[in-house]
Amino acid sequence: MSSSLIVGLVGGGTVGGGVYDIVEHTHKDFFRSLGAQVQVKRIAVRNLKKQRDFSVAAHTELVGDWRLVLDDPEINTVIEVMGGITEAKEVVFGAIAKGKHVITANKALLAAYLPEIVDLLKKHPQVKFGYEAAVCGGIPIIHTLQNDYLGDQVSQILGIMNGTTNFMLTKMESGADYGQVLAEAQALGYAEADPTADVEGHDVQAKIALLAKLAFGVHVPSDQIPTKGISSVASVDFEYARLLNATIKLLGMAQLSPDGKKLSVAVSPFIVPREHPIAGTNGSTNIVNISSRNLVSSSYIGPGAGRYPTANSIVSDLVRLARGLVGPPFPVDRAMPLEPDYTSRFYIRLRIRDQLGVIRVVGEIAERHGVSIYAILQNPISDPNDIHFVVTTEPARHSQVQAFADDIEKQDFTKGPPLFFAFLL
Amino acid sequence: MSSSLIVGLVGGGTVGGGVYDIVEHTHKDFFRSLGAQVQVKRIAVRNLKKQRDFSVAAHTELVGDWRLVLDDPEINTVIEVMGGITEAKEVVFGAIAKGKHVITANKALLAAYLPEIVDLLKKHPQVKFGYEAAVCGGIPIIHTLQNDYLGDQVSQILGIMNGTTNFMLTKMESGADYGQVLAEAQALGYAEADPTADVEGHDVQAKIALLAKLAFGVHVPSDQIPTKGISSVASVDFEYARLLNATIKLLGMAQLSPDGKKLSVAVSPFIVPREHPIAGTNGSTNIVNISSRNLVSSSYIGPGAGRYPTANSIVSDLVRLARGLVGPPFPVDRAMPLEPDYTSRFYIRLRIRDQLGVIRVVGEIAERHGVSIYAILQNPISDPNDIHFVVTTEPARHSQVQAFADDIEKQDFTKGPPLFFAFLL
């Protein structure tokens, strides 16, 4: 049953070190008990002189070029944890082409080249491909979707898939300001010096595209996912959310239309009601919630990133591989039109100069675009020249609300584009 | 890769009907796409004349005796969903002995005969054994523990594993009374006419024993699990829990001692702080929370029972079987002493007649048993002859609190045995 795995690890940083530590140190006995040889023969690193924070066994060679991993005929399994999508593509595609099994944590690579990877794997059916670590670090959501929803029908998948922004939103909920929490996240090493990928939602975009592929079989190109980050969310939005007995979370969402014929995929902040398990998922923790016919609603909560959570997912793929238990990495391809124009109730925050007739104009513009207003919320006014107020809507299409917001922006009482996002229903 | 599965279904009730419906109707095309024949050849039912709530295909024969399933040499896979542990034991043991794969939803059977099943499977290594449906119906917790924690070290597993009692506790939290919610649960078909197995925690006992085996490799006989149900919990306990910014949940818990050398397993109501994901898991939903070295804390939430959630888990086992992806059902056996005497902060509700000096006596008894009191809570008193008050403790051993409670019960001011249970820390 068990196969010998001679592993080449490409990347000796945070995650690579964690994988090495588990395979060669803490769980060496467990791997021995599998009755198969599992050992890391080579680790390819960028800088051979850099001090490593893990101890390297005598049977492992550090090499300065990942080609020495691919060219080693004894290595039958490549673990790619180098990141990036240029060299990593050469590593992953090269390894598959040479018939080596691949385990990767690289969501960006998968999102950028999913159809190519699917095709290449079809040409090399003996190659096993694991990517549990690519989405939500320590949550086994890939394995679960690959194995436990096959007799079910998923209708929606959504969740908090970025720990950095959830950490920031959780802090903002306690009254902190966007700039302040971003600086704090950067000081703690949670956010990059250039935080764009996190705060503008691009990281979540890649993850929800992968989960949509797994849940629905549909390839969703990242550039076709309407994406709104958290950089426009202010602490005042949390005050309004509190009035709505809700909070604000940055979610990736993929949702079948009620007739099952179209798929809407989006990344956006959402107003999340307090009683939903997503609302209570705080700090850098991730959650994925799945709606389906058999299970109705199920949630998976765990760490979204970090050395050992991510390494744990890679090791789980490695154990499956050693035991011969890796199944098809992706479901059967399915084509389905994408519908960017999802329907929801919406939260719209307007920033205006107070003047007579604003509400009448807002009402007229809403009516013109077919947007039915549910409520208008107003915090106490301190400066009549810079007022926030919030309009909540009855269910409306995103495009209607966008048109409403564009029209509001043109009015002379407006002090900037309205911020809007959907309610999680 | 894929194997033909000729299935004998033993049990044509709620769960059996759900499995049949998925395999032979809603997901027939998916099973065809596996490239393997998967079909239900026989369904053994107790009463052949009873009307079934699913339509039976021409290739499926209803039989009145499960021996006709076991004796059919063409049937290579037996799904046992009949329940009970007498005949079900004959079915499961008989099928394994004949070299047929087994999928079962029967937690009671597994809990009662776990070492025997493990031994029998060792004698028949070609037999695959699936039991995802046995614990927490729709949560894939068995597969997750079998596959995704193998490079990790679990230190604690706990959760809400019984939907009936969680439904009842959720109702009681809103002020309803135990007797009233039990009657309601019975009327809705959630609770049996004899609700003992649910309300006294025996159902959870079987489930936590199975999860302890999976997480720690240790066989924990059910009769060695200290078990306290919810029948003594009153709505007044929820009032006190609210003062503690917490709620009350019936949990199964298995916990390694800090030195990793002993295992404590218990079933009891717990005081659960509001911010813990377990506190927000309401109604008949189940949750399993796992503490481990790599993942720190992770939670799995879903339906705990019901036709399609349970059937979904059985179908997931069936798909793995068809794909040749079923791994070892249990981890390597490990022996570890059981320590029933776990340490926690405790909640103790006393029922007394008001008289001078009660608090002094309570304090003396606590001191005598080494129990350090953290706080004393008292709701407004309506009848001085029947007063509730609550003592919360600093961390203490269960046995110390039991001795304290036994001593309190002997005092002349006492109106019944104190109710006590642990805080979830």
Automatic annotation (TrEMBL), chains A, B:
Pathway, per record: Amino-acid biosynthesis; L-methionine biosynthesis via de novo pathway; L-homoserine from L-aspartate: step 3/3; Amino-acid biosynthesis; L-threonine biosynthesis; L-threonine from L-aspartate: step 3/5
GO biological process terms held by the UniProt record: methionine biosynthetic process; threonine biosynthetic process
Keyword Cytoplasm attached: no
Residue runs in coiled coils: none
EC number: 1.1.1.3
Domain of life: Eukaryota
Keyword list, A-Z: Amino-acid biosynthesis, Methionine biosynthesis, NADP, Oxidoreductase, Threonine biosynthesis
Family matches, as Pfam families: Homoserine_dh, NAD_binding_3
Enzyme's top EC category: oxidoreductase
Residues annotated as domain ACT: 347-415
GO molecular function: homoserine dehydrogenase activity; NADP binding
Family note: Belongs to the homoserine dehydrogenase family.
Protein's recorded name: Homoserine dehydrogenase
